[in-house]
Amino acid sequence: MKSVGDVPERKLSKTEPPPVVLTSELRKVYRTGFFLNQKIVSLKSCSLKVYRGETFGLLGQNGAGKTTLFKVLLGIVRPTGGRGLLLGKPLGDRAVKQRIGYLPENTYLYEYLTGWEFLQLTAGIFQIPSKVQRHRIPELLELVGLSLADAKKKQMRRYSKGMLQRVGMAQALINDPELIFLDEPMSGLDPVGRYQMREIILTLKAAGKTIFFNSHILSEVEKICDRIAILSQGELICSGSINDLLGTANTYRVKGQGGDWEVLSNWLPNIEFLADGSWQGELHGDVYDFLASLRLMGGQIMAMNLFRPSLEEFFMEQVRERKNS
User: Fold this and answer.
1) Do 137 and 271 fall within a single domain?
2) Could you say which of 82, 134, 274, 314 would form a disulfide bridge with 26 (CB–CB 3.0 to 4.6 Å)?
3) Whole-prediction pTM
4) DSSP 8-state assignment for residue 235
């Protein structure tokens, strides 16, 4: 019998690299109530892939299941159903934990330790030799923008929210992980702190790290991520690159009349046919080829404007559609 967490091997195409995160139909149900007779479904049939070297953003409202998904992937809680792989190993594999980093949404730090002492403690858990710690800890402090003086002399109970987030990020990187999970890394930070955290993530991306994070700051996600997924009420409702989901900077909103409706549907997949006989939609394809095709069909352009929704607009539209379905 296959245990939860095992994924059957599958053949990958020559052009598709093996994902570092792979889930198939993951589910998580919590039981509550005095007799544990009530069920809360936190994850429903969640299937996704994250590839090496990419920055992947998970979006969703509070209670959507984002943190639950992180905890399942990290082996903190066991899934109720479904399967998954992390760096090619079944979920919960202990050896994999040496190769990943994790920054929780609420960092639980030993407040009477200094930042330096805390990073030494974390390094000890990973059995990192003292001689390696002596150069790695200062390098990480420089990366996250925390001064040596604050790290060595000031207890963490006296740190600001931004300083605590920086120490938390440093501990997530202490073992030089291949795959980094960041749970709301910009939560509670001011605009300067968010900018600095974004620069840290981009530096890690440039170094070839794989970063999987969730955030409510959608404008930051749009700037950072290669691909995103939206989780709503425990269900993954869409995923893809920013350009795939929002359209490129050259996406056009087109309105016209006439032409062959079947051909038009190929150019404008979300085409709307209006009561007055005209039509409108977003153009997918080369604008000059479309205009030439429309001319051959005897169609006519009434309006054409550059259009690309923001990630926030796209997110709200997806969530509204899910609620109304």
Assistant:
1) no
2) 82
3) 0.81
4) E
